[in-house]
Amino acid sequence: MASEQIEQMVRIINEPIRSKNPLFIAGFPGIGLVGNIACQHIIEELEMKPIGSIDSRFFPPLAVLFNGIITLPVRVYESTKEEIVVIISDIPIHPTSSYDISKALVEWMQKNNARTILSIAGIATTTGERRVFGGATNAKMLEMIKDKTEVFQVGTISGISGSIMTDCFLRNIPAISLLGETPGPNPDPRAAVQVIISLNKIFDLSIQTDKLLSQAEQIEFELTKLAEQVKTTETSTIPRKEFPMYG
Questions:
Q1: Residue 228 has what pLDDT?
Q2: Range 127-145 average pLDDT
Q3: Which of 3, 14, 27, 73 has the fewest other C-beta atoms within 10 Å?
Q4: Edge-to-edge strands, sheet with 23-27
Q5: How many CB atoms lie within 10 A of CB 40?
Q6: Mean pLDDT throughout 192-212?
Q7: What average pLDDT does range 188-193 have in this prediction?
Q8: Which residues fall within 8 angstroms of residue 173, CB to CB, at 6 or more apart?
Q9: How many whole angstroms separate alpha carbon 72 and alpha carbon 87?
Q10: pTM for this one?
């Protein structure tokens, strides 16, 4: 598919990016919402400025409201101080459209002189740990992360996170994938915290994670309370067995 056709289907509307060689970070909904949670926290901690949004015929027909104001579900933020641009999405990207959307995004990031592209996502395991797995598009990038993450030796990165990494590889763009280990599909701020800690080490940043950690404790408390309520409800609705009487 030609670039012109993709541009017609994926519109990136933004103010001029002021950073000369920005680090681009992308977080889309996935396992544990690790990418979304990490990116939202980065935006808040760095007090990043909203500079644009992304629209596409591939997206579901919906509008997002924030404090009563309409906004698009895929947004772009920038910190000129740190030279970081974040793309964050409130909606999952369907696998059938991941190729075209990632192609448009990577092409746009390349045009804006990306020094590195970072894709954040989750990876489900049964270990109960919160490790961070890393992958890269070339040996130099792998050298950057090998002592700061668990190198993802063999496996696949699915969804748009995988499509972004593939397109970066084909274009010879330096790119890294950070996958936060999580035990299941529930929102997992603890996995996002570990990803941000790795991000700080790799790019020499100092993004604080205290607020996110307290959020993790609150979410865990709420989920535990909900599970107890469900258990109590299920117990109370079990029908009483009636035993026959013998004379």
A1: 74
A2: 95
A3: 3
A4: 10-14, 49-56, 74-79, 84-89, 23-27, 116-124, 175-182, 132-136, 150-151
A5: 18
A6: 96
A7: 94
A8: 106, 109, 110, 114, 117, 137
A9: 12
A10: 0.86
CB 194 within 8 A of CB 130: yes
For residue 94, what are its two tokens?
């369907």
Model pLDDT, residue 243: 45
Kindly tell me the sign of the dihedral angle through the C-alpha atoms of 229, 231, 234, 240: negative
Written out in words, the top-level CATH class of the domain with range 3-209 is alpha beta
Q: What is the DSSP letter of 20?
A: S
Q: Please give the Cα distance from 10 to 107 (Å, whole number).
A: 11
The first and second tokens of residue 71, run together, are 């906004």
Beta bridge partners of 66: 69
Going by DSSP bridges, is the β-strand pair 116-124/175-182 parallel, antiparallel, or unpaired? parallel
**How much is the pLDDT for 9?**
85
* Residues 11-42: tens digit of each pLDDT: 999 999 999 999 999 999 999 999 999 999 99
The ranges assigned to domains in the chain are: 3-209
109, 24 in Cβ contact below 8 A? yes
Length of the chain in terms of residues written: 247
Which amino acid is located at 155 in the chain?
A: G
CA-based nearest residue to 115, from 141, 145, 89: 141
Q: Report which of 110, 122, 121 is spatially closest to residue 174, judged by C-alpha positions.
A: 110
Q: Which residue has the tokens 């404090």?
A: 67
